[in-house]
Amino acid sequence: MPVAIITGASKGLGRELAEALAARGWDLVLDARTAQVLKETAAAVAEHGTRVEALAGDVTDPAHRRALVAAAWQLGGCRLLVNNASALGAEPLVRLAELPLDGMRRALEVNVVAALGLVQEALPLLRAAPDSAVITLSSDAAAEAYATWGGYGASKAALDQLAAVLGEEEPELRVWAVDPGDMATDLYAAAVPGDDGARPEPGSVVPAFLRLLDERPPSGRYAAPALLEGRR
């Protein structure tokens, strides 16, 4: 069975994507910081009959990243790496004039440095697997200027650039940066508490990610709403 590593997989989009891949027969290595929630998610995902390894930890910890890749190797390799774990930098979001520099560093460490570190750790397995791919979770804040989203958006813009360069340097892989669009997630609720506007559930955008895996378009940046509409 193909094996995927998914970070930030205990809830939201990470969990929904894990459920969808398990339903297709993928074995999974799942990461999140909250051990009990991750354990419950892993048990639910495993009901699809696939093997699921759940490792609680912080992706900024090199030892944790090595453990994730080692778990994938034990399952048979790694065909897909999904860098979904994200940090906002401040909760709730604040204007750049008030953004704590430690928060900015945390966003960069989680969203950029740890993502690259996990890619580096997993590359030998990805290179050895057929039709392998890396997915990095982007945001419209990486490309548009929204007040209070500067720190988070800057980190995601940096991640987009890393994904673009990785796609050039590893032509045998597919490297997709995906902007999922607005979603009703805990991350958004922490970013903008009190904003109770209607937003799609994370599961509604999963078909966009499955389309990428099925069609394997060139490496690049994609928007989930366009993929759902049949466009790229």
Describe the structure.
By secondary structure, the chain is α/β, with parallel strands linked by helices. The protein has eight helices and seven strands, in the order E-H-E-H-E-H-E-H-E-H-E-H-H-E-H. It has helices at 12-23, 35-46, 62-75, 101-128, 150-169, 186-191, 206-215, 224-228, and strands spanning 3-6, 27-32, 52-56, 80-83, 133-137, 174-179, 220-223. It has a seven-stranded parallel β-sheet, with helices on both faces. Helix 5 links the parallel strand 5 (133-137) and strand 6 (174-179). Helix 1 packs parallel to helix 2, helix 3 packs parallel to helix 4 (101-128) and helix 4 (101-128) packs parallel to helix 5.
What descriptors fit this protein?
232 residues, alpha/beta, seven-stranded parallel beta sheet, 8 helices, 7 strands, globular
**Roughly how many Å apart are the termini?**
28 Å
The total beta strand count reads 7
Strand order of the largest sheet: 3-2-1-4-5-6-7
User: Approximately how much beta-strand content do the residues carry?
Assistant: 5-15%
Q: What's the helical proportion of residues?
A: 40-55%
Low-pLDDT segments:
none
Largest sheet: 7 strands, parallel
Instruction: Please provide the ordered H/E string of secondary-structure elements.
Output: EHEHEHEHEHEHHEH
Structural class label: alpha/beta
Oligomer state of the chains in this structure: single chain
Instruction: Report Rg.
Output: 16 Å
- Counting DSSP H or I runs of 4 or more residues, the number of helices is 8
Principal-axis shape equals globular
Mean pLDDT value: 97
Pfam family, one: adh_short
Family: Belongs to the short-chain dehydrogenases/reductases (SDR) family.
Protein name: SDR family oxidoreductase
Keywords: Oxidoreductase
